[in-house]
Amino acid sequence: MKIRSIKTKLQTIPLKTPFITALRRVENVEFVRVFLMCENGEVGIGEAPATKAITGEDLDDIVHSIECIQESLLQTSPAEALEILHASSIGSSAKAALDIALVSLLAGGKKQKLFEYFGAKEACILQTDITVSLKNQKMMLEDSVKFYEEGMDILKVKLGSDIAHAIQVTHSISKRLPDAKLIIDANQAWSVQDSLKFIQAMQNVKIELIEQPVEAKDMEGLKAITQISHIPILADEAVFTLEDAKKVIETKSADMINIKLMKCGGLSQAVAILDYAKKMGVKCMLGSMLEGPYSINAALHLAMAYTDVIAYIDLDSPLLYKEVSQELEFMFDAKEIRYIDS
């Protein structure tokens, strides 16, 4: 099975409401969809969203990267193409789009669903969190209550640099929804001092974890917070590659790591990180950017095969779409995600 052609298409999916974090405000999911057509008629599909604030790539960058490498991938097998792809220096999101398509072709060549290809014997029910965007305290509390009443009991709360606001928001949500599981995501917005101030203020508040409180480059600060905090600390933007994961885990700079296909370069690279984390006894979050249905599907299939190491799933993009995508293989029913065998 050789790759005959590679094509890209720009896609947009409107969101119900704006998605707001300390890093960005987004009103639509915008992504590149890539199609790998093989000589035998098989087609592999991958996707990558524009996440300039995180990976440094916009839509034009992703398309350009794919165009730059496509001649090297044509007339190769999916396995050969994977080696060429990950030996290249193109951006991680562009790699992820191509990687997802290639791994899908490898699974299809074995007549397997992706979750079977990754080692899962059968599909299982998964639970994702849902994101509470950064707004004023009243609106964030209202959004949290709305999500919780709809059955979403894992709330990923986006907070910004105003630490007083962060403390007030977290206290108000915890008081109103004492049984909710709160994931606090600062998206690198805090200093070490502010992080410790927040943690001290949460002595009597139940919080699942705090995600990337300080800048990704501040590994010493991240480690200092982790050593002091009674709340687990998760590294997100500090971990793109397997090498990054090894550095964070071996130096004990965080308690957990967040793996995202768009950061690490796709499914094959995520598997390498998951296998390493499993060996080291470190739990992970399988996260996402604001992504399209094919990349979310791919991540969900991967999650089914690593339920022993993935403690949290942050794959809520389809729940934020204005309209449900018909391309999803999964049924999103409140907090439960079920695979639809089509």
Total of helices: 14
Characterize the largest beta sheet: strand count, sense, and whether it forms a barrel. Answer: 8 strands, parallel
Radius of gyration from CA coordinates: 20 Å
How much beta, percentage-wise?
Answer: 15-25%
Looking at the structure, what is the overall shape? globular
Q: Residue share in helices?
A: 40-55%
Kindly report the average pLDDT value. Answer: 96
Q: Low-confidence parts, pLDDT < 50 over ≥5 residues? A: none
Helix and strand run: EEEHHHHHEEHEHEHEHEHEHHEHEHEE
What is the strand arrangement across the widest sheet?
5-6-7-8-9-10-11-12
SS-based structural class?
A: alpha/beta
Distance between the termini: 24 Å
Beta strands, count: 14
Question: Which short descriptors sum up this protein?
Answer:
342 residues, three-stranded antiparallel sheet, alpha/beta, 14 helices, globular, single chain, eight-stranded parallel sheet
Structural write-up:
With 342 residues, the protein is of the alpha/beta class. The protein has 14 helices and 14 strands. The strands form 3 sheets. It has an 8-stranded parallel sheet with strand order 5-6-7-8-9-10-11-12. The chain is globular and about 60 Å long. 49% of the residues are buried.
